[in-house]
Write a structure and sequence with these properties.
- There is one protein chain.
- This protein is of the alpha/beta class and 544 residues long.
- The chain has a 7-stranded mixed beta sheet, sandwiched between helices.
- The radius of gyration is 24 Å and the shape is globular.
Length: 544
């Protein structure tokens, strides 16, 4: 009898996309000449998932759990996603923030197996040839980083690859983007972190970062290589510093299908949280004023999307931007300052300088404060109490990641506001009990946005990712928050419902893509069925 197509024997057990481990049936083991390589007992995938849960429960360290899951992803992709999707609320903090932050910091010390593509600037001129070695011919999503601003942890160089890997895992686990279409990429242009350059275990280029024209040419060569090899691919720019993130987004947003999740995804999840908050305050978006702690690309991205959402409700865009002022290390961003970048100037107020954040709150009287400073504890007791003095329900969003960089904790926000704060953070916090009442903190995690955007782009073969799509996504997230959720203090759908929530968002975004003529495929009769039909499900396929 001829052998079935594909790898056989030991090689099949070493192919993560084909491997079923102990779930290979007796017939498959005989047909693929695998007898002898496995113990004779046959498991179901449900039993394998239960075994994985038990293994993880035996570990007392989240980084160890992260490593176990990473090794599982390298061995058996289907089981990996079946495990993640069995309890997304439990596993998202392990495969992404906050645990991934520690994994990136220790990347060279815990490196187990290669995943994705590493493109150093020393390979400039050969990027297309190197990218072409990737075994999948149809790549639809690349999450690419140069590692200069990794979460709130700074320049981690090649170690930031963990973020690209983690985000693509969430594309699949949270929105069903098939993993075979996903490629994590590290663009290594060096690092300015001396402790990495001195670390014998560091795996990146041992040089300081390349800047200027050489850097720009390197990015351009990468984009052209992607376009040439994978014309349907969407590029997600990840963890670039302000000085490069904003110019890259502006240079390519109208040229290729691309977006920056740190700027646009963060903005969308913030708008979604604000829309959820308004259901608790009973106010309109036009009545809001938000003060940002942090003046970088994340802050201006959120401020711009809020401003555009206000403009859609009839407000002049300049007036809307004036309702979203920024405060950085040098104080309030005002027009008289001579240290502002071009992307910050639209939000500079015609106002006297203010050097104290508390004073800015008392002067500008914001309804909400949004922290994207990457500096912990700056939303101190004075700040929270000042917000509570001028608002019945102050909106407090410390969005900096990971947890160690959060501007305040959930308990601090609730306690110092007398339990009146509407709270959401970038990284997770557990329930808080104060005076016999339990508060359930919301998490303004981009996971509500980028996986769903990805599914919509995949299914529609969208030519561009526009700002409007992020506003549509934000509204689609907010409209899924139930009255029961709000009663518990939640302004986002629970993570336990993330897959259904992502499907809803993806359907709304895909509808807009078709409406705006951005799709690369004909409009289907039923967009709901069309989107769900593209979703990956972690089940073993019959090999015979």
């Amino acid at each position: 009898m001829p052998l079935p197509p594909g790898p056989t024997g030991y090689q099949r057990l070493r192919n993560p996309r084909l491997n079923k481990g102990t779930a290979f049936t007796e017939a498959e083991r005989r047909a693929f000449e695998m007898e002898g390589f496995l113990p004779p007992g046959v498991s179901t995938i449900e039993l394998q998932v239960a075994r994985t849960h038990a293994e993880l429960a035996g570990l007392d360290n989240d980084l160890q759990k992260y490593l176990l899951l990473s090794d599982l992803q390298a061995r058996n992709e289907t089981l990996y996603y079946a495990t993640l999707m069995s309890d997304p609320a439990k596993f998202m903090p392990l495969v992404y923030t906050p645990t991934v932050g520690e994994a990136c910091q220790k990347f060279g010390h815990i490196f187990h197996a290669a995943r994705g593509m590493y493109l150093p600037i020393t390979a400039k001129g050969r990027l297309r040839d190197i990218l072409a070695r990737w075994p999948q011919q149809d790549v639809r999503f690349i999450v690419v980083t140069d590692g200069e601003r990794t979460l709130g942890l700074g320049d981690l160089g090649v170690g930031a690859m963990g973020i690209s890997i983690g985000k693509l895992a969430l594309y699949t686990a949270c929105a069903g983007v098939p993993p075979q279409y996903c490629l994590p990429v590290s663009l290594d242009v060096g690092t300015n972190s001396q402790h990495l350059l001195d670390d014998p275990y560091y795996l990146g280029l041992r040089q300081h970062r390349v800047r200027g024209a050489d850097y720009d040419d390197f990015i351009e060569e990468f984009v052209q290589a992607v376009q040439s090899l994978y014309p349907k691919c969407c590029i997600q720019w990840e963890d670039f510093a302000n000085i490069t993130a904003v110019p890259i987004l502006e240079r390519y947003r109208d040229r290729v299908c691309s977006y920056n999740d740190d700027i646009q995804g963060t903005a969308a999840v913030a708008v979604a949280g604000i829309l959820g908050s308004l259901r608790l305050t009973g106010q309109t978006l036009a009545q809001q004023r938000f003060l940002f702690l942090g003046g970088g690309s994340a802050a201006t991205g959120i401020a711009e999307l809020i401003s555009r959402a206000m403009a859609l409700e009839g407000m002049d865009i300049a007036e809307a931007r004036a309702r979203n002022p920024l405060f950085d290390v040098n104080g309030l961003l005002v027009q008289s300052r001579n240290d502002l970048a071009a992307f910050q100037r639209p939000f500079a107020l015609d106002h006297a300088p203010i050097s104290s954040f508390v004073e800015a709150i008392r002067t500008l009287r914001p309804t909400g404060i949004i922290g994207v400073s990457t500096m912990p504890k700056l939303f101190n007791q004075q700040v929270i109490e000042a917000m509570a003095e001028i608002n019945t329900r102050p909106i407090i969003f410390p969005y900096s990641n990971p947890t160690s960089r959060s501007e305040c904790t959930a308990e601090e926000a609730y306690r110092w506001s007398g339990g009146r704060a509407i709270f959401a953070s970038g990284s997770p916090f557990g329930p808080v009990e104060i005076d016999g009442r339990t508060y359930v903190p919301g998490q303004g995690n981009n996971v509500y946005i980028f996986p769903a955007i990805g599914m919509a782009v995949l299914a529609t073969e969208a030519k561009r990712v526009t700002e409007e799509l992020f506003i549509v996504a934000a509204k689609a997230v907010a409209e899924q928050v139930t009255d029961a959720d709000l009663a518990r203090g939640l302004i986002y759908p629970p993570h336990s419902r993330i897959f259904d929530a992502s499907m809803h968002v993806a359907i709304k975004v895909a509808t807009t893509i078709f409406d705006r003529g951005l799709a690369g495929v004909p409009r289907p009769r039923d967009i709901d069925t069309f989107i769900r039909g593209h979703a990956y499900r972690p089940v073993y396929q019959d090999s015979l």
